[in-house]
Design a protein that fits this description.
Blueprint (H helix, E strand, L loop, with lengths): L4 E4 L4 H14 L3 H9 L5 H8 L15 H14 L2 E6 L3 H16 L3 E5 L12 H9 L4 E5 L6 H9 L3 E5 L13 E3 L15 H20 L5 H19 L6 H15 L4 H9 L16 H18 L3 H8 L3 H36 L8 E6 L3 H15 L3 E7 L2 E7 L6 H7 L4 E6 L3 E6 L4 H15 L8 E4 L1 E2 L7 H6 L15 E14 L4 E8 L2 E7 L4 H4 L6 E13 L2 E13 L1 H18 L14 H16 L4 E3 H7 L5 H13 L3 E5 L6 E6 L12 H8 L3
Parallel strand pairs: 1-12, 2-3, 2-4, 4-5, 5-6, 7-8, 13-14, 16-18
Antiparallel strand pairs: 8-9, 9-11, 10-11, 14-15, 14-17, 15-16, 17-18, 19-21, 20-21
């Protein structure tokens, strides 16, 4: 696990007093109260508003520039029976945007259709051929959702065919905007809307709320139009907002809080079927169901919706949400799950090739953006692979797939490098580009690739500081084992939904003693039983084997973790989900003493008669078989701690010399890690004859140092 810097937040004296007041007045634990203060809710009223489900932040949708024009044109199209086509993106945000706008216009009696381009055949954005086809089919009004803000030429083309174009989007704007009938985007430089972080589906939700408000006022209807719109469409708006990783603050918090509640009280057949096929059973007919959280949407639901647009066709996901009967819904949901499995297989194939290319091609000394290209990488998988590469190396990455002269690229960035700005710097080399600060798409001619790689790294060297390249984990608070209670874990749910700008609380604890280490999930994950101050807790580290963490029974550990509830066989308990783990102070000191002792003997220090340093033949055999056992399990990284765990009593210094001697005599091919003391990469050497360890110069020297 790459070393990370832990930034632990601490409260000042006045903040601690504020937390005590909040705790007393709102009846919250001091832990939850400290978190609220640390996140800026430093008095009882602001804290209450933040956690209260009845508190509404919903800005007037008509504050969005051009909203009045968009509403007027859509109402006119509905009333005149004009053919309206909704043109959307193929990700979850686009799919949910298309779905709610289509459902709403049809409910109002409008003549609506929708169009989502094929990622592989047409690519991102508005397609000129599609415009011609839609116009020929009688469309009069084209409404883009989650796309279109850079479609200057395409908008002109649509107008030439007699289509009015309304653009709704939330992506970064370039210098010039399309000359559309109306362009609704909170990121417009001339838009004074107070919240800029709406998802594409959030902008569309604002649009239909504006239409509903206008129609209600015109008809003199006395109704709570916002409540009705949330009850009808809130589930899809929440899913799109969470999936697009938008900050869950301000009105996004309201939208997602209410929307996730609507998902739990499921009424949409397609969503119910998708949840069931994903192994999630929501509330139904009064029966309790699994709590729907933003995390469940991000990792359980969104990938299955996204898979349609990545591997097959996103219109299938729209059909799921429009579906009204359970049988058809289950069939489509199963298709999406199967498509998602195909997407995962494609991803794994590309990631293997990508890591090989990085090892062979990337210049870590000089280049701060990883740029990789290959023929026929699946366009639908390269964005996810870029995310994984960026997360692994903490570097921006761009993957480009070529199919003849056609290219599709997808990039991910880190804090400190606005990817859209970086691509803009290279715009003379690109066919097109667009996206967000941390995620963007592009297209490029093959011949321009070397120049692009050079130029974007030139930009990155100027804008990314050495500090930006350090992986930071922001920690809300240091706590003790007495704080690890089920009550505290359950109370933290008051701060949900979690996401960007309101992350799941992160804690740290130092010097916990490891009582037991339990491999789980075919040794892909590790469970630890930890003890401190006489109290026991269970901790789980996902995606890391015990040998990778190199911490064992009896060691002490410093950990960064989320405090969550775990339910098993109907019993709930508090559980630590480890985000990062390091040796504790005692273990570091113990290993440091062992390394120093090893170095002193290696330098010629005499070995005392009672010191257990010189290995016996039995010691060599035991270590040999311990290494063989690890290698059979697919582990080629061996540490002194790992051998010591398997062979109690050998001691650090003796194990180091045994490994040195096995290396010297070519029993194994052993390469010491240059950065980490006591860590080795080991591969088996074919042994054609018996190895005589007595010939080892290292062993002879050790014996000569024996007093």
């Amino acid at each position: 696990m790459k070393n990370k810097e832990w930034n632990v937040k601490s409260l000042g004296e006045n903040e601690e007093k504020a937390a005590e007041i909040i705790s007393k007045e709102l009846g919250l634990s001091i832990l939850t109260s400290r978190l609220l203060v640390g996140r800026g809710y430093a008095d009882p009223e602001s804290a209450r508003r933040f956690i209260a489900s009845d508190y509404v932040v919903f800005h007037d949708p008509f504050l969005l520039k051009d909203m009045d024009k968009a509403v007027e044109r859509i109402i006119r199209a509905i009333e005149n029976g004009e053919k309206i086509v909704i043109y959307g993106d193929y990700d979850v945000d686009g799919v949910t945007s298309v779905s709610i706008l289509y459902l709403y216009i049809r409910k109002k009696g409008g003549n609506a259709g929708y169009y989502i381009p094929s990622r592989t055949g047409e690519g991102y954005g508005i397609n000129p051929n599609a415009i011609a086809s839609l116009a020929e089919d009688g469309a009069k009004l084209l409404i883009t959702v989650d796309t279109g803000i850079t479609a200057i030429e395409e908008t002109e083309l649509a107008k030439s065919y007699g289509l009015d174009v309304i653009i709704t989007d939330h992506h970064e704007c370039q210098e010039n905007l399309p000359a559309s009938y109306a362009t609704v985007n909170p990121r417009r430089p001339d838009c004074g809307y107070p919240f800029k972080e709406l998802a594409g589906v959030g902008v569309v939700f604002k649009l239909i709320c504006s239409i509903e408000k206008t129609l209600s006022e015109r008809d003199g209807a006395q109704k709570d139009w916002l409540d009705e719109m949330m009850r009808t469409y809130g589930d899809l708006v929440a899913i799109g907002t969470v999936a697009d990783v938008m900050p869950l603050v301000d009105e996004n918090r309201y939208i997602v809080s209410v929307g996730l509640g609507m998902v739990e009280k499921i009424k949409r057949p397609g969503l119910e079927a998708l949840l069931e096929k994903s192994g999630v059973h929501a509330q139904k007919n009064g029966a309790p169901g699994k709590k729907i959280t933003s995390t469940l949407i991000s990792y359980g639901i969104a990938p299955r919706i996204n898979a349609a647009g990545r591997i097959s066709n996103a219109t299938r996901a729209v059909e799921l949400f429009l579906c009204e009967d359970q049988t058809s819904a289950r069939k489509i949901a199963e298709e999406l799950c199967e498509t998602n499995r195909q997407r995962q297989a494609e991803e794994n194939k590309i990631i293997e090739q990508a890591y090989k290319k990085i090892h062979e091609e990337h210049d870590f000394e000089n280049d701060r953006v990883i740029v990789l290209s290959e023929d026929n990488w699946h366009n639908g998988a390269i964005g996810i692979v870029a995310s994984r590469i960026t997360e692994h190396y903490n570097l921006p990455s761009i993957l480009i797939s070529f199919d003849g002269n056609v290219s599709k690229g997808s990039g991910r960035s880190i804090k400190g490098l606005n990817l859209v700005d970086a691509l803009s710097y290279c715009s003379d080399l690109l066919i097109k580009y667009g996206g967000h600060e941390l995620a963007a798409g592009l297209s490029i001619d093959r011949e321009n690739l070397p120049a692009f790689k050079k130029k974007i790294n030139e930009y990155a060297r100027e804008h990314l500081s050495p500090e930006d390249l350090i992986t930071h984990i922001n920690v809300d608070a240091a706590i003790e084992m007495r704080d690890v209670t089920l009550k505290n874990a359950e109370e933290l749910s008051l701060l949900e939904p979690f996401g960007v700008a309101n992350p799941m609380p992160v804690f740290t604890m130092n010097d916990a003693v490891i009582v037991d280490v339990i491999p789980i999930g075919s040794n892909k994950h590790t469970k630890y039983i930890l003890k401190k101050d006489g109290k026991i807790a269970t901790a789980v580290c996902f995606g890391r084997s015990y040998s990778e963490n190199d911490l064992y029974e009896g060691d002490t550990a410093d950990i960064v973790f989320n405090l969550e509830t775990n339910e098993y066989l109907g019993q709930k308990s508090a559980q630590l989900t480890i985000r990062d783990i390091r040796p504790g102070r005692e273990t570091l000191e113990k290993r440091s003493r062992g390394a120093e002792d090893y170095r002193s003997v290696k330098a010629g220090r005499k070995i005392g008669k009672k010191e257990n340093v010189i290995p016996s033949r039995e010691d060599f055999v035991n270590v040999y078989y311990a290494i063989q056992r690890e290698m059979r399990q697919g582990n080629n990284t061996i540490t002194v701690g790992l051998i010591e765990r398997n062979q109690r009593g050998l001691g650090y210094t003796k194990i180091r010399f045994i490994i040195d001697i096995l290396r010297e005599t070519n029993v194994f091919r052993i390469v010491p890690d240059e950065e980490k003391d006591g860590v080795y990469k080991i591969t088996a050497n074919p042994i054609h004859e018996k190895i005589n360890l007595e010939k080892s110069s290292i062993l002879k020297r050790l014996r000569s140092l024996q007093e």
